[in-house]
Amino acid sequence: MFKFKIKNIHKKSRTGFFDTPHGKIKTPNIATVATHGKIKLLTKTDHSRANPDLTIANTFHLFVNNKVKEIKKAGGLHKWSGFKKPIMTDSGGFQVFSLGWGRAHGTGKVGKIEIFFEASRKFDVQKFANNKNPVKISEKGVVFNYDNKKYDFTPEKSIKIQEDLGADVIFAFDECTSPLHDHFYTKKSMERTHRWAVRSLNAHKKKNQALFGIVQGGVFEDLRKKSSKFIGGLPFDGFGIGGSFGEKQMADVLDWSLSGLPEEKPRHLLGIGKIKDIFIAVKEGIDLFDCVIPTREARHGILYVKSGKFAIEKGIFAGDKKLIDGNCGCFVCRNKITRKELHCYFKSARKADNKKLSTCDVDRLVLGKRLATIHNIHFFKNLFGEIREAIADGKLDKLEREYLF
RNA sequence: GCGCAGGUGGCAGAGCGGUCAAUUGCAUCAGACUGUAAAUCUGACGCCUUUAUGGCUACGGGGGUUCGAAUCCCUCCCUGCGCA
User: Fold this and answer.
1) Burial class of residue A197, CB neighbours in 10 A (0-12, 13-18, 19+)
2) Could you say which nucleotides of strand B lie within 7 A of any protein CB atom?
3) What is the ipTM, given to two decimal places?
4) What predicted TM-score, i.e. pTM, was given to this entire model?
5) A124 carries an active-site annotation
């Protein structure tokens, strides 16, 4: 189980197959984010229409929403959700950041240059003070302060929950650092994450689940290399590259992060990403991704097309009788649903005069968002199909030029 | 014809003597979203420019009261409802 077979290598890129109890994952590939075990807004039928190759659910959010017992009782995420292909679960390590320093710092994990400047100027102001972080981190683990309740998490607990959830691939519990953290903090955090990685390994008993360790180290070369070597030396089934990035440093950070990992095991770049970043990462040798972009942006009315993404709510689409993409094979385009129709679904449900939306309006709006979600998932699935083909043909650069993002 | 209620920026609709170029929503335009606090959030939205505690034109038309009017008065025009 969990054999990873590399099929083609072109420069640093590779294609391959990763065996899981729910089938082979062709790599490179992307997991569609299904935080609560299901893709937001999609029905079961929608799910099979979108037909992602794999999904990733979230340990923290399922736990906080009291779903774990129910899912365990049903026999795990696959039976509970009806999705028969590979599923991953994230450990909750990202929420240590997104609900913690991310909120305190007001930043995402991919830092923008301006924010660095801002931060260096204001670093000692209260905004960045420790007491602003609603997540308390200690050697033992983490206490989340979420929704006015406290939740204790430890590596052991995260693994236990992930075993109950029963995904094919699970992740070690880590701390995702903020791009605004300095070398000192990032180092301390990384070392703690390393100790948590060992604890996660020791806690993991169910051998029908692959456990991936996570490389940290922020934007710092020495830390990334050290983390890569340390985590790469542990008997994980695969590896996640986690933590924060500078917006312009993706390639470097990946190069350092992969430097100590064994070639023959899969590498998953956690939470990335944008089309540009995906190409950068594949060229560095990343095999797996997951990202909220396809689904979240769909809900925000952004449709992906090879020539760039566009916002379907814009006025120019009110009378546009073209398909989203004439060459697209997704459920929406195959069924000849036009941009005009989609525009209508998104716009028809706007509330007026402070009135609440009628149920009917909400249904139409949600229909638009569902269709957009199905299209975008297909777009990314198709992108990865083309990436695999291009790597095999040694034409990845040519393919990258076709995607105008 | 009489009575009543109204006429405010692309639309809906606040304001009812100064702090009003005018709340708010929609529409429009621009932007954001990277291991989902997100079916979300941000900005612009009369015209002009040296982009400013700047200038100009504006709340149906005209006239008036007032230091000052979208806000009060007169008149005309228009709309809706009721009665003839």
Assistant:
1) buried
2) 12-13, 24-30, 32-41
3) 0.91
4) 0.93
5) no
